[in-house]
Request: fold
Amino acid sequence: MIFLPIVAGFLLLAAPMAVSAARTLGLVVVLVQLLLGLMLFGQFQGTGSLEFTEHYRWISDYGIFYSLGVDGISLMIIMVIAVLFPVAFLLQWEGKSKGFWANLLLVQGAMVGAVAAADLILFYVFWELMLIPIFFMMGLYGGKDRIAATVKITIYTMAGSLLMFVAILALAVSYYNQFGEWSFALADLTQVTLSGSTAFWIFAAFMLAFAIKIPLFPLHTWLPDAYTEAPTAATFVLSAVMAKIGVYAVIRFILPVYPNEFIMYATPLLILGLIGMVYCGIAAIQQKDAKRMLAYSSASHLGLIAVGIFAMNTQAMVGSVYQIVAHAMATGMLFLLVGLLEERLGTREIDSLGGIAKVAPIYATFFAIAMLASVGLPGTNGFIGEFLIILGTFKYNVWLGVVAATTVLVGVSYILWMYQRVIFQKTNQLTEEFKDLNPREIIGLAPIVVLIIFMGVYPKPFIEKIEPTVENYIEIIERQSQAVVAEVRNDGGVNHDNR
Reply:
């Protein structure tokens, strides 16, 4: 699932073929990826450990290996990638160049590689590789302010990547000093003993790199411009998948290596997530551009996902992983639908729209389902994710739970307001000519609608895949907490004896 789309992407770039042939080949590749993803999901045992592992020598003298594995969390993100890319192809079918389709394939393979990597250098390579196609798509096919937006996201992501690379090297050197050999394998690096300022600065570098990618408040400022100016497919990739890989990296790479620092700074990071929810929610209300409103909405929901991670209990973390999937489907679908609106009407200004439900009932229905999943209506997958996160946040701290629960209402208000303005009200000269979804677009979106409802009424098969992995991470937190308590007691006993 890594090299098939990458090889196909380079083939599209190099081979002299018509755009229609390139587009068809790309669709075949992402459909094969979907089939492979379904097979992966069906065969995944949910043991809590890495499954489908691969381990090959790469730069073995320095402990660098091509090492892959899938756990319950990475499985869900890989499934999101596999399910959503065919939808992007079917809804972006017309008017795209060969390079556009090639970049979509390249970013798909790189994202699967980043999520499956079990070696930090391999993860870093795929992390960088997945950004390059997005830069090209934004710079070549974006809106009128695409260059400024591309420069901004480039500066942010390069800063984050540099911090992460320095942190990886510092961690590997620490491993070498303690064990006498090089290794970049995550399983080995969790054995490194770090303390004091060294542990703090390496933790901080990793955390900043991933916080930029999520993005966590106040590092979110690149997001509205990038999501607004990027072409619809790039916005779809950024919002539905790439931001989630930042969340995934916090769980997969920071928590097991720095459990002490993770526990120590969990509360301030959780509060930053809450602030991001409120700030971006209020900013969304003020937007007149539907796409920019969805950008702020996406940032607000990512704040909620971060809250679940830093609440440090099984319910909240399972909820965050579930919400990653739910948000990817709902927000990805909303961005694609707004993209269709812009293609057919030439605008996405909310004040210029209205009455879409009268001329395009199927479009309005699909938009409503995605919107309701986004706000967490019971019966949709968004409800399961939000419910578990808020439940876990209450378990962590009642007052923070109250804040998380009430701030969710902010999201409900602006998304319903936008729906009422765009979909209802009277048609105008512009919107009365709007064409409803065609069969290809309906076929593309229908599986997402089915999954939104299925995951909302029967979450068990998905939670069963996630929970064993999450429990392993929670066990690390509990073990570290007990060690800290024992150390404090021992210190107290020594001080008491001294007195």
Remarks:
- Residues 376 and 413 are 12 Å apart (CA to CA).
- The beta strands are 51-59, 64-70.
